[in-house]
């Protein structure tokens, strides 16, 4: 690639970047052109950038309104760009103002939403790695109590084991429940973790994956498909999570093999 091609590609990228910052193509070209020559008339600018001289006047006026160039009232009129640092600050401020305006509106719409029904935050996660990540996230945020159960040793990853141990060491009550010896054995030597073996009641269950309860307001339940794929539902800080946890524990449905 020649030097001219390199320069053209770089200028094209710069123009695209300025456009993403809110400038038109002509505005970006004139601004770049003025920095190239330092200062000049509309004719000077049109000779170094691909903008007709008749268009330069209007473009320069808009750039002046933005605070990106200064105008010398001479004959002919001359233009000089502000420094790159000043221009950077101006464009940054403009971007932040537009960002605030956009998200303030979103927050207003969010607050003004009406209706008697409330959508509970119940989410679905598909895929073993994604369920692993969500499990670790829920465990990591527990401050008081954790119940973790599974019938499958492969669902107790090193990261999950480490997170459970760390939370227990931090003073969180951690209970691991499973009827599978290989799962219980991973925590048997840890004094900070309580391991429980639930009585057999559903020996034909081949679909249950894992259950995670944290602080009585976060829950994750998963099932495992025939090919080993895992799908989970989870909820945190919702009425759904609190009620489901109470129902599971009150009815002895916490059966993780």
TrEMBL record:
InterPro entries according to UniProt: TrmB-like, Tscrpt_reg_TrmB_N, WH-like_DNA-bd_sf, WH_DNA-bd_sf
Domain Transcription regulator TrmB N-terminal residue range list: 20-84
Protein name (database record): Sugar-specific transcriptional regulator TrmB
Organism per entry: Natrinema hispanicum
């Amino acid at each position: 690639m020649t030097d001219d091609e390199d320069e053209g590609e770089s200028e094209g990228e710069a123009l695209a970047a300025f456009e993403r910052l809110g400038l038109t193509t002509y505005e970006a070209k004139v601004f770049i052109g003025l920095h190239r020559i330092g200062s000049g008339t509309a004719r000077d600018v049109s000779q170094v950038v691909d903008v007709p001289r008749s268009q330069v006047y209007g473009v320069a006026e808009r750039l002046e309104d933005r605070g990106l160039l200064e105008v010398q009232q001479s004959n002919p009129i001359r233009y000089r760009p502000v420094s790159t640092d000043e221009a950077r600050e101006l464009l940054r401020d403009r971007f932040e103002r537009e960002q605030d305006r956009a998200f303030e509106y979103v927050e207003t719409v969010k607050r003004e939403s009406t209706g008697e029904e409330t959508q509970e935050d119940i989410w679905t996660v598909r895929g073993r790695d994604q369920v692993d990540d969500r499990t670790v996230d829920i465990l990591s945020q527990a401050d008081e109590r954790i119940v973790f159960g599974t019938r499958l040793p492969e669902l107790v990853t090193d990261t999950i084991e480490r997170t459970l141990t760390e939370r227990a060491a931090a003073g969180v009550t951690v209970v691991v429940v499973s009827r599978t010896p290989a799962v219980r054995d991973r925590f048997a030597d840890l004094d900070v973790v309580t391991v429980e073996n639930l009585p057999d009641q559903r020996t034909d269950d081949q679909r249950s994956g894992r259950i995670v309860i944290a602080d009585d307001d976060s829950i994750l339940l998963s099932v495992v498909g025939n090919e080993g794929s895992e799908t989970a539902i989870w909820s945190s800080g919702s009425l759904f999570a609190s009620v489901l946890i109470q129902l599971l524990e009150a009815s002895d449905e916490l059966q993780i093999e």
